[in-house]
Amino acid sequence: MGMKNRINAEHYIWGDACEGWRLLDDNDLAIIEERMPPGTAEVRHKHRQANQVFYVLSGTLTLEVNGVVEHLSAFDSMNVRPELPHQARNEGEEDARFLVISAPTTRGDRTPS
Asked: Where is the Cupin type-2 domain (predicted)?
């Protein structure tokens, strides 16, 4: 596969101003670096199969999982099991940068909740 980073990884925009870089995109494992500017949020959703780990690189990420809210800072992580409704948002004053590690991939596995 070779080295991947924000320069050579597949890049996409989601929501109003959030970004993602696909560092690994296999059927059994996906790793995405994401950037959420202050005041942004994803749509609350769940995954049927994917088990996810959110690992914060910088900033603060607010992660609501099944009604419980956690504030993750740099080097904090949180596991989100399949079927649990969740939402990531940035309530801070700086960009939140984090990795989302999913096994298996979340492609085609997301449903609103």
From this structure: 34-101
Domain annotation covers residue 15: no
Tell me the C-alpha distance between 14 and 73, whole Å: 22
Q: What one-character-per-residue DSSP string does 27-91 give?
A: SS-EEEEEEE-TT-BPPPEEESS-EEEEEEEES-EEEEETTEEEEE-TT-EEEE-TT--EEEE--
CA distance 105 to 98: 17
**CATH number of the domain bearing residue 46:** 2.60.120.10
Are the C-beta atoms of 103 and 31 separated by less than 8 Å? no
- pTM (whole model) above 0.90: yes
